[in-house]
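User: Assemble these into one structure.

Assistant: Restating your components, then the assembled model:
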Amino acid sequence: MSLIFYLIAALTVAGGLAAVLLKNTVHCALALTVAFAGLALLFLNLDAQFAGFAQILVYIGAVAILVVFAILLTKGSETPQGGVFSRTWLVGLTAAAAVFAVLGWAVIASAPLLPKAATPATAATSAMVVTPAPAVPPAPAVTVEQIGRALAGRYVLPLEIVAVLLTAALIGAVIVAMHEKEEAK
Amino acid sequence: MFGEGILKGLAETARNFFGSFVSAERLTTVEYPEQRIAPFEAARVFPFLVYDGEDWLAGLRCVACQICEKECPPQCIFIEKSKDKKPDFVGKPQSYPMRFEIDISVCMSCQICVEVCPFEAIKMDTAFELSTGDRFGGLLLNLTQLAKPNAYYRQIHPTGAAEVDARMAEEMAKAEAKAKTATDAAAKAAADAAATKAADATPAAGDASQSRPDEESRR
Amino acid sequence: MSESQSHSAAAGENPEGRKPGSQNLVSQRPESQKLEGWNRPARTEPEADGQLLEVSMGPHHPSTHGVFRMDVALDGERVIRLRPVFGYLHRNHEKLGEGQSYLSSMPYTDRLDYFCSLSNNWAYALAVEKLAGQQVPERAEYLRVILAELTRFQNHASSIGFLIQEMGASGTPLMYAFREREKILDLFEELTGARMMCNYMRFGGCRVDASPAWLEKARARVAALPGFVDEFERLLATNEILMARCQGVGILRPELAVNAGVTGPMLRASGVGYDIRKVDGYGIYNRFSFRVPLGEHGDVYDRFMVRLLEMRESVKILEQALKEIPAGPVMDPRLKLRNFRPKPGEAYGRIEAPKGELGFYLISDGGPNPYRYRVRPPSLINLTILEDMCLGHSVADVVLISGSVDIVLGEVDR
Amino acid sequence: MTATASFARSIIETSDQIFVLLKQWLVSFLPAAWQPAAGVVLCVAAIVGLFPALFALTTVLERKGLGRIQNRIGPNRVGPLGLLQPLADGIKSLTKEDIVPARADWAVHFLAPLVLVVAVFMGFAVVPMGRNLVLVDMDAGLLFYFAMGASTELAIFMAGWSSRNKYSLLGAMRAVAQMISYEVALLLSTVVVVMMAGSLSLTKIVAAQNQYTWGLPHWYIFTPWGLAGFLMYAIATTAETNRSPFDLPEGESELVAGYHTEYSGFKFALFFLGEYLAMFSVSGLGATLFLGGWSAPFSFLTWVPSWIWFFSKLMLSIFVFIWLRGTLPRLRQDQLMNFAWKFVLPMTLLNLLVAGLWRFMGEGWERWVLCTAILVVAYVVMGRMGMRREHFGPRSYRYAE
């Protein structure tokens, strides 16, 4: 675990906290974007290029924009006058703690499964500085091609099911929107 | 329908792009401070007062009749008539302007003053680089700044000046003839004066009381 | 697009006779949709389904042609309400005219529609001539036609240029228009002494005569004009983006146009064949053969094309006038410009200015000044229906529609 | 004879690799441990220096070119032929007051131009600008490029929102909606290249195109799917970079200046820089994907240094951008969206199918005919349908007599 990891982790956590704690909803959305970017950097730090770039492309390029648009379109852009804490903060905290516990348990439980020797992630400090074809042992580093082959081979059925689902959702969204527009007329 | 309109437009702009390098019809720009176009003869910017001879005060054609002051649409002319009268070139006593001021920040270069002037005394200048550091005083032209010789008028409006000169020479001749028929000595002296004026390169100003065939009847 | 269909279907009630069966739609149109007041809030048509965004476009907006303001209420980008606000350039033109001699008002008319000073001169001269019963020499009439048509040509070219500029074409058509306008203005300057504020016409003729050299130059220029129109047409007329932007946008129904007193290319683009050059035949226009192009749909594209076609017709008139121009005086020799006192009475002189019917209404009480001096400015009256054309369209279209009206604020606010 | 030939070859080799050699030479002064990091810093410095310089040159070229298109001369006062104009502009924007509106969200307002420029600069990292002349040759290069491109949208939104100006917000909303719509088409239009080259690495894509038959290169643009893909790519990138005719976000006739209405001085210059850098970067990517990157257009011209080819292709596409700007009016927002979703996107999807067909039909003239036919028919049908749906078309006019 290098210094860079801690820096990125701190950035991510700070972004996440800011997203929860800031008053202005648009600032929250932007802070969330910072958290997304931090996550992407973590992926890259682990040499998972595809996951990292997909994180940026989807979460920063699309999801963040979506969130921001949603905020603006639902009149949520005004700064609330009162505090940022909701009255049901205790429930929220409990739920968050439960989720964190489950995730933590999952991580700790899977730790013994990792091969002990394979910790080459430190070699690639950042994706930007990766020199072409470094002499890193190809332990858990998954190339884009491998992901592609896996998606088009072994996992083709889940992929297609997800695609159908998303298409259906898209069509549904369009129909909902069209319906509203006609009602407005 | 399939983008051919856009392609046609692109071809047109490409033609203009290359055309502007070769055709003066296309590239009409004149790079002003270095290149200058001679102003058209009819060009008009701001009025000036014409004088004959060398001494601008004596030769000023303006008789302070104040017609231009009255007719000026934006009222930018101010004239103060003299109390006394000075003899003009034919010896006829005429008033002259004590003050004649034109505020060229108000003037709109309409040429109405030139059109209504019966004495050919006010004409339009073609000088246009008149910027000044003082926007009030600097743009209020007084008599000394306004008075310009007939030679200058000839230079900037040759055709118009030639017409005016010819007309005035004709009137001079008439006045001379009139003077000759009068036999008394005083008139003869006046005719002498007029003759010396006529011999001068700049013919004298016309007389308002004389009828000028087309100019006068038009007004 | 269903909107545009219903509009074009309702486009009836015009003297030329249009699609049968469309007439009854006009009579059935509910009262609420007829034009009553220009500042009335939204008609029944568009309805906001969200929060309205009030935008004040102008008076310092890049595309309002000067100091003109539109208070626009937007739902998203759709216009729900639009209120044109005039008067930022009011210069008291009419009252000035009442305090001045007939001659002194002439240079002020230049400044009404400063793109077409010669047309304004003519309209005013026509009114005074009617008032005084003044005749105009033949050659002066020809010169007036030549100058007015040159003015029309350059005005239409520039107005198309501005329109496309507002569509975002980074000024290319405008620069081409200005290139040609430059050459026409050179002609004006050579003849009248000024490029824009010509102050050339007088009641009873024209101020100075045109030299044969000038006429030759004018002939050469006019011979080059059709090439310029061709260039414009190649550059713009079939451009898909332009068609997509202009067609079906800002439809002006002919009955509304007539009711609102819209004139000029705007009216003709709506399909009403009304051109004062044909209707009045003022000056000597009935001697020339030219056609009046008419639009079909009354949208922005029709206005654009009608202007383009009118440029071609202007060239035709110019060619005839420059060929037939007789010799002779350009001014009635008996006329006195100074101390001009027409007999008591009233007169309305109107011409087909490039922007529409430009009229001057004068009442004389026998004095040296008009008792009443009134201008009928086409720009202002054509602008009054702006809201009706813009409702339901987007902001981008508002800019386009106001551009297609072809206004000059000097004339709107006077 | 062989000596001169080998000498010539070495000259050609050196001129081709001059920047690489220069870097190695400069780095060799440092201790071995620092060399990789120093090399990267050097490359980044080169990119950060080169492209703004190119931007300066392009602004003056654009103004002059646009001027000539419009029958004007263009700037010619500052320096010889006006070439120092960008210097004057730069000094002006640096010395101008930096105005932040009183109600603006100053932090976001400040960050927006920085985020934009940084995101755009990142894109250059993976574009090969010559043989061996690429900062990072990563496997997922194309993906990286698009990931960075996607981040610019957020910067534009930040700029528009933080200015607290109606025009800015409208402009930003327009820009973001437009960029998201066209990003889909942009991604899909490049997928065909990935399908053919079998790699997301841009160097491999160039290498796949750097072959010659009868002296002609195997650029992807010379295939039916490549041409269609290139056209779609060109349309999508024009929209992505907010250039005319898709410059709605900053349509000055409607929105004054769009999302950067409230920016002045150096921040405005940064937006300007970001826009032009985006233009260079998409031009470079387009050249890489479809025009063979740094490869020469004819086999007998391969002796010309590869970076010269890359930059000529880049400048050529910049010239096309300028030409389009000088000719076309802009579209309206809904038309822009319709165009993206109803024309460009279906065409790119169809192009995927065509590319697949091409791949599996094998060598021979049949695939040429079939692929071309499919694309042309689709284009004609869609063009006609689009026009008919919107009732567009040339009109004829009658005259009142």
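The mean pLDDT of chain D is 82.
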